[in-house]
Write a structure and sequence with these properties.
By secondary structure, the protein is α+β, with helices and mostly antiparallel strands. It contains two helices and four strands, in the order βαββαβ. Strand 2 (32-36) and strand 3 form a beta hairpin. It starts with a strand and ends with a strand.
Amino acid sequence: MTVRLLILGLADSMTNLDELRAKLPVLPEGDHWISDPIGERFGLISFSEDDEPVARARELIGKDPEVGEEFELEN
């Protein structure tokens, strides 16, 4: 199983964390939005192949993730 970790910076984005939270799509079961309000960062931990939440976050923030990594889940 693949785990994706995406981190997006909000400091120079088109939105802020509160606006973003109000407009984000519901994630597939097991996936989670993550945030770092102090560092003005937002992200996603995803175990699914669904790219729509990532596309929506990109659209709202106005840029691609600064970090986009995939890992194999170890047993």
